[in-house]
Recover the amino acids of this structure.
């Protein structure tokens, strides 16, 4: 039967589809510190002017004159607007227009406001050793397109947060070279959902089981009928440990060169897959023998290799007031080659989805200008390349394209012990075409996304001694 390939992996793919871009960058953006954001993170591994260097390059702790504790908060406010351009049913079901609920249009907007807190502490123990501690949220994103939008079989709700705990230590080799490293404990949580076409799913199950396909229509389970959609939701969490390393080189007075490496993470999110079947589909799968029923609530584990990053940065004093900054940051997205899923329910076979993502580079440039003893201002621009190579590889959970950062910020010194950093960033994103065929048997989502993304950050620094 031509439908047979569909359900052999469709139940697995349903849960995979809800998480395929949630573990990736999507269009969530970094908000590591208010200091770095003001420069669009230019010079991130070299400048070493605040406590967040424990995260960006721990070797930079020796550049801090005093022990310092920092509390930061950032808000990412983004909007993604989708315009449909001819989404289609899977060819197995005629490749016709994809239906939506009555009164629902084919355009859709989703908004997210993601807060990102951070805590940093850094101090020199003596002339040779230093230590630090960092806590931040490297990834936080949420979106909800609603249950009736045209891309509901690809994504409905996405809510993902990762917390990073990063103790570090640094060693000063000589006046020109220092090194550092740390252990990163990352705790990830995810809630992800999408709809299932109950009629198409019934046909797939029937085909795989050798049952007459006409049985589905007889009980009212016809493909492309949004009034009988079912739902799948995945909740999971996991903790993984990785590491980061850094080197800071000062070849001459006023010049700093930093190299920072953060190793990739092999995440496994363990949790539950919850299927809410329409009554007819629930009765259909309920007739299967116990232990052989697909689409039943079950435990699940989603596995994915997240990428390593390598950051090369330069900070150069042009004069006593002006500092020029630059960064090239490489992200190894090719390591994110597959996303695999295993289920406790033996009726749902383990499965995987392949990816064709490419390594990506972020280029940024910026400056710091000291106005007086109280105030420093900064600005930056960055080009952030997308790892998504083409519209077929783009998901509505992370549909962004190449990004352009426009940032400004500053530091104000209230006293010798208390200072504040602030920053604002607007991110321009290229219009993103999507032509995603989804999993086996799923419809093709064909359209485009437009974005509006802004970041705001504030940080208080308490300098001891």
């Amino acid at each position: 039967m031509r439908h047979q390939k569909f359900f052999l992996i469709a139940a697995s793919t349903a849960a995979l589809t809800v998480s395929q871009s949630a573990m990736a960058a999507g269009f969530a953006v970094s908000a590591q510190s208010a200091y770095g954001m003001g420069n669009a993170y230019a010079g991130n591994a070299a400048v070493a002017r605040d406590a967040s260097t424990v995260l960006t390059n721990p070797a930079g702790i020796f550049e801090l004159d005093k022990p310092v504790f920092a509390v930061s908060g950032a808000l990412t406010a983004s909007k993604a607007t989708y315009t449909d351009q001819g989404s289609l049913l899977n060819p197995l079901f005629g490749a016709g227009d994809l239906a939506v609920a009555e009164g629902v249009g084919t355009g859709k907007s989703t908004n997210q406001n993601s807060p990102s807190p951070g805590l940093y502490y850094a101090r020199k123990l003596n002339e040779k050793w230093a230590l630090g501690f960092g806590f931040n949220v490297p990834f936080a994103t949420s979106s909800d397109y609603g249950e009736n939008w045209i891309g509901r079989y690809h994504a409905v709700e996405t809510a993902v947060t990762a917390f990073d705990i990063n103790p570090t230590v640094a060693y000063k080799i000589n006046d020109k070279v220092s090194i550092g490293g740390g252990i990163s404990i990352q705790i990830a949580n995810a809630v992800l959902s999408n709809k299932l076409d109950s009629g198409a799913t019934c046909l797939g199950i029937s085909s795989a089981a050798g049952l007459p396909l006409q049985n589905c229509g007889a009980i009212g389970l016809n493909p492309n009928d949004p009034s009988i959609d079912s739902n799948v939701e995945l909740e999971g969490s996991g903790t993984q440990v990785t590491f980061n390393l850094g080197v800071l080189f000062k070849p001459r007075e006023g010049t700093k060169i930093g190299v920072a490496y953060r190793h990739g993470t092999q995440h496994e999110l363990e949790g539950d897959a919850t299927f809410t079947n329409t009554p007819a589909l629930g009765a259909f799968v309920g007739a299967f023998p116990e232990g052989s029923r697909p689409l039943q609530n079950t435990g699940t584990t989603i596995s994915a290799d997240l990428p390593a990053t390598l950051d090369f940065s330069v900070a150069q004093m042009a004069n006593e007031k002006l500092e020029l900054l630059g960064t090239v940051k490489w992200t190894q997205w090719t390591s994110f080659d597959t996303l695999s899923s295993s289920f406790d329910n033996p009726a749902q076979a383990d499965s995987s989805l392949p990816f064709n993502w490419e390594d990506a580079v972020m280029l940024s440039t910026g400056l710091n200008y000291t106005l007086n003893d109280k105030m420093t201002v900064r600005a930056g621009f960055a080009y952030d390349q997308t790892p998504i190579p083409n519209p077929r590889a783009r998901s509505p959970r992370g549909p962004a394209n190449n990004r352009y950062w426009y940032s400004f910020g500053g530091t104000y010194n209230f006293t010798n012990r208390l200072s504040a950093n602030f920053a604002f960033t607007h991110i321009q994103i290229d219009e993103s075409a999507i032509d995603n065929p989804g999993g086996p048997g799923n419809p093709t989502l064909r359209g485009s996304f437009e974005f509006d993304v802004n970041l705001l950050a504030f940080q208080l620094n308490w300098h001891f001694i």
